[in-house]
Specification:
binds magnesium ion, 16 helices, binds adenosine-5'-triphosphate, 8 strands, about 50% helix, 3-stranded antiparallel β-sheet, 3 domains, alpha/beta, Helicase, Ruva Protein, domain 3
Amino acid sequence: MVSRIVLREETLDPAFLPSELPHRDELVRWARERYDKAFAAGIPHHLLITGSVGSGKTTVARRLAADLVAQGRRQPVPVTQVYVNCWRRSADRVVLLDLLREFGVSLPDRGYSISEMLDVFQQGLSKSRSHVLIILDEVTALLRTGTKLLYTLSRSREVGLGNLSLLLIAPQDVLPLMDPGTRSGFGVTHQVRLPPYDRDALRDILLARADLALAPGALSRDTAEQLAEAAAPSGDARLALELLSGAAHHAEERGAQRISAEDVRSAKASIYPSPSDLTLEGLPVHSLLVLLALNRVLASGGSEASTDRIRKTYEAVAEEYGTPARSRVSFWRILKELERYGLVGIRKTGVPGEPAWVGQNEVPVSQLTLVLEERLARKPRQIP
Ligand SMILES: Nc1ncnc2c1ncn2[C@@H]1O[C@H](COP(=O)(O)OP(=O)(O)OP(=O)(O)O)[C@@H](O)[C@H]1O
Ligand SMILES: [Mg+2]
């Protein structure tokens, strides 16, 4: 019987919008209150969200907008949201056409001036009797064109356009790209910078998503930690979820009930190119032996092994290859070197006297073991 691990595939899709966002819920609540207050008073409110790739900018904006729209249904003035990704729409005219389409007005691409289009937009706004929240994602692209539209939208009341608020999204601070008039709407209290997710945050996001997407128990906390560790250098939740999806499908193909450490490595190896033969080529024999020892320990399961256990295995592996094992200090130096090459990860427990833990999330253990054994077979056996 084929095991089923992925029960709700759609919740692993990048377009899926979770109702709860670990480590960003507080921010969504804060922003919602700010917009709410402004909407209740019938005034616009603007916010700029910045942050690195996969830090949750678009998701936070979409969650916030969806919550405001849902809440607006119970208010005298409802809320409508319009989402425009400016990356492929980096011209005032194209953005305006998109906004008009939201009000059911389909104008031809040519033949109307910007101010005529704004007139039609204004009519649409006043007819809709709602407060419109416009999300301009990847707004940097629009700002680089020297947009005039952003100024008009940010001053909607003053220019008599109607009831609208902005939510801008960009990877970096885009204030320097704004003209002073637009910039004044985005003072310090109107900007939020999302930090990259750290390992713990990524683990929480993964566990929450596994609850939605996978069979109960398919993702253990340890494996979630391993996935988080693999994605942590980028701080990118998209990458973490992509790894989760890859590992879950890998486990499913094996007919397993749970995602293993090896499934995670396979997922990572299919996303990233494996460490090139070149990296291994440059490594001294004892580095290869230590790496082989680590992989032999990991082959029995788990995402990490203690340095004590790896060292014992290293001694046995060195003997197998007919060379005396290096000293404890050299062993440690080799591990640090492998870490520098990105071939292993070292985690210290912080407790004095306790061994550190070493993991290898780059390549499936089975695959790397084969490559290492093949390389070592080609090296001369007796190494001074
Ligand atoms: N706090 C979170 N909880 C759950 N899922 C999250 C969270 N943050 C991000 N994600 C998920 O991670 C993925 C990437 O998030 P998102 O698209 O919002 O990042 P971004 O900052 O807009 O990235 P980019 O700069 O590439 O546009 C999405 O699939 C989203 O569902
Ligand atoms: Mg985005």
